[in-house]
Amino acid sequence: MSSDTVTFTTAPACSIGALYIHTKPITPDVYGNTKARRARELRPRRNYLLNEDVEKQRRSLLQRNPEVESSVADVEASSDLLQNLREKMPEFMPRPDILSRDRILEKLERQDMYRRREVINIPEFFVGSIMAVTVADKSAPGKQRRFVGICIYREGQGLSANFILRNVIDGQGVEIRFELYNPTLLKIETLKLEKRLDDQLMYLRDAPQEYSTVPFDFEPVPLPKGAAVPLNPLKVKLNRRPWHERWERMNLKGVEDLGLPERFYKRAQELAKPWERFDLMKQYRSTIDDDEAQTVMKEVYAKTKNIQSLRRQQRTQKQKEK
Amino acid sequence: MTLRAVLFQAFNRNSGILKHQLESARVLYVHQQSRSKGSTQYKFGRPWHVKKVNQSINDENLTTENEEFIKEVIHETYTQHPSPLREEPWQRGEYLKFTRRCGVIGIKLGLVPQWTKTGEKITTTLVQILDNHVIRYTPPEEAAKTAGWHPLWRKFGSVVVGALSSDPRQFKKSYNSLFAEAGVPPKQKLTRFLVTPNAAIQPGTPLTAMHFRVGDYVDVQAKTIDYGFQGVIKRWGMKGMPASHGVTKSHRKMGSSGGGREKAGIWKGKKMPGHMGDRNRITKGIRIWRINTKYNVLYLHGPSVPGSIHTYVRIYDTILPHKRPNPDDHPPMPTWFEEDSEGQCPEEQWDEELFAFTEPSVEYQ
User: Fold this and answer.
1) What's the pLDDT score for residue B162?
2) A105 in contact with B at a CB cutoff of 8 Å?
3) Does the keyword Aminoacyl-tRNA synthetase apply (chain B) (predicted)?
4) Does residue A172 fall inside a structural domain?
């Protein structure tokens, strides 16, 4: 083949077979190493693949069955609605730790979660809401057990999402951790839907028992349709020290004045890290990119809508049968 | 002839990608005896490989147009490649008592909880089998000539499996030409499995998650997490010394390193600080609870698959005598083909004892 038919430019050329391609000149350093080679040697050795490399492979056209993007982007939902959904169902969000994140794993996990949500109704709830959970139990007399309490903690992503209910029974504080997607949960109810001033209410362990006592025959308090979730501005008066944790260092809002000597607050101030609010890298690592979150929440929105309509159909069918 | 066709020919003329261009026999494991380097593991010589990485790739600063064009040509080259599978398929062997099948290369994705039908929680490790192909089969007589061969492998041939098809420009020409026989793009990762001759697989055959069945037991081999240079507390779990009560400068040190008299000196194998992790480890007899055929994902029992997330994992039938498949009840031989499953293959396959999330909640009677 004559070179004039194929050359693109007259610049220095590199050949692959007989194909001429325009390149920029390469300048090696004193030791004869090029820039790219030096960069390669400085790269850390890893015995695993990077997340982005795996993603590239999954979509690469050289693969036998390259993955095709699903059409989630067609869903019409305002960003406010998606943000609202994100607060309601935080367990659907990807894991905050970058190193343990994988798209396919999370997708498969979410599929299971939708399936489970079709079987039982998992209602909206927040830390501070009063809930009742019915569990299948081998050793209980009726093979079932119902527990009522106030939700003091909620954590976990995917199928391992869980929450803690607290109540006082016969003068003894009792806490049970329930897994949200455990198949032995028969029924989950929110008896009173409300939020509190803090993200977690672990300090109720060090508060007088009346704050965490809920009667087992607590009647559900219905919320008018379309109303926003009410915020309970209750401030808790803690017991005197000793405590489980040093609450004065936690920057709590739902707690009355702790009444400690001056030195405790001084020490708390010393150990505080107010600059972490401005640490952009730390925030980037511990939170999830908004775009990524939106694509996930759009999928959740579409699926949960289907589940709701399914449930409505079932309800009307049952009424007709009656 | 169009310009495109001319370029296409020019690219493929000397690339070493196509089978008929190969002048001499290619080697995957070199049949030359090399001297042992003092290691008892490689008494019979160390196997070596053709050089993989093309050093000059990053030095070509191509214009975007040219870059796109080259990608197109590469894609076309492999889609129009004459696959060896168009020839007559090899005869499928029968599963006998001492048969050893080929394995697959997976990528570890992470941990997910699952529940049994009795309501017990199990942790499972997800492993994705991404783009696996058989690259070559070597019969036992040929395999005996390779460097690093051991006399105990007398009855075994070898199957080389590759995972993750990638851009041929990353690699040397000699490496790329290894894949001409199989008719697939060059693979990022290659491994060799010892197999009995009745489990030979034709080169170019894709391997999927359906190579195994739900309820089978497998062995899993991977490199453990690389912790780097570590002290004695983290590496060997020693106690160290107290934080106070007069202890100075030896809170995390090893204690005594040896005795006196005839036991004097530091004995060989003394536990000391050093490099921790990044070693090949095998976990045997792991059960497969569930298979997703759409994404080719296996749900393996327990959190004990070695390595961090996104490591390569070698998965093969277990060698444990009570758990390995027997001639009466065995996985597909030599591997799963599309004609094996009647109709369309179900996307999800659950073990009988595993709770499928479509079922109603667990209740006790």
Assistant:
1) 94
2) yes
3) no
4) yes
Distance CA A243, CA A235 (A): 18
Side-chain half-sphere exposure of B235, counting CA atoms within 13 A: 19
pLDDT, tens digit, for every residue of A186-232? Answer: 999 999 999 999 999 999 999 999 999 999 999 999 999 889 999 99
> Cα separation of B273 and B216, whole Å?
40
CATH number at residue A152: 2.30.30.790
Residue of A nearest to B166 (CA): A62
Range 226-265 of B in CB contact (< 8 A) with A: 226
The one-letter amino acid at B21: Q
- Between A319 and A45, name the one with better pLDDT: A319
Q: Which residue in B6, B360, B364 is closest to A143 by CB distance?
A: B364
Residues 6 or more apart whose CB falls under 8 angstroms from that of B33 comprise: B44, B45, B147
Q: For residue B80, what pLDDT is reported?
A: 77
Domain assignment of residue A151, yes or no? yes
Q: Extract the tokens encoding B86.
A: 């168009």
pLDDT tens digits for B239-293?
A: 999 999 999 999 999 988 888 888 888 888 899 999 898 889 999 999 999 999 9
Interface contact B364-A137, CB threshold 8 A: yes
ipTM entry? 0.87
Instruction: Please tell me which of the candidates B10, B63, B109 has its beta carbon nearest to residue A1.
Output: B10
Q: Report the run of H or E that residue A163 belongs to, with start and end.
A: strand A162-169
Q: Amino acid letter at A3?
A: S
Q: Which fold has domain B64-227+276-350?
A: Elongation Factor Tu (Ef-tu); domain 3 (2.40.30)
Check residue B268 and give its pLDDT.
87
Tell me the pLDDT tens digit for each residue of A83-111.
889 999 999 999 888 888 999 999 999 99
Is this model's pTM higher than 0.90 or not? no
Q: Which of A26, A102, A120 sits opposite B110 (nearest CB)?
A: A102
Which residue of B10, B278, B311 is in closest CB contact with A19?
B10
B13 contacts A183? CB cut-off 8 A = no
Interface of B with A in 28-67 (CB under 8 A): 55, 57-63, 66
The least confident of A176-190, B128-142, B169-183, B278-292 is: B169-183
Q: Are B108 and B323 in contact (CB under 8 A)?
A: no
End-to-end CA distance of chain A: 84
User: Residue ranges of the domains in chain B?
Assistant: 64-227+276-350
CB half-sphere exposure, B165, CA atoms < 13 A: 25
Please report, for residues A81, A158, A253, B203, B287, the alpha-carbon distance to residue B214 in angstroms, rounded to integers and kept in the order given. Answer: 41, 23, 52, 26, 8
Taking contacts as CB-CB distances below 8 angstroms, the residues of chain A near B308 are: 47-48, 99
Q: Is B343 on the interface with A (CB under 8 A)?
A: no
Domain that residue A158 falls in? 124-222+230-245
Q: How far is CA A182 from the centre of its chain?
A: 17
- pLDDT score for A11: 41
What pLDDT does A300 receive?
93
Residue of B nearest to A8 (CA): B66
Q: Is residue A135 part of a domain?
A: yes
Given this model, what pLDDT does residue B343 score?
Answer: 82
Interchain CB contacts (distance < 8 Å): A and B: 166
The domain tally of chain A equals 1
Q: Is A43 an 8 Å CB contact of chain B?
A: no
Read off the pLDDT of residues A245-276 as tens digits, 9 standing for 90 and up.
Answer: 999 999 999 999 999 999 999 999 999 999 99
Task: Identify whether A319 is part of a domain.
Answer: no
* CB contact (8 A) between residue B10 and residue A17: yes
Separation CA A208–CA A200 (nearest Å): 17
Interface test with A, best of B122, B311, B361, B363 (most A CBs within 10 A): B361
> A48–B3: do the CB atoms touch at under 8 Å?
no
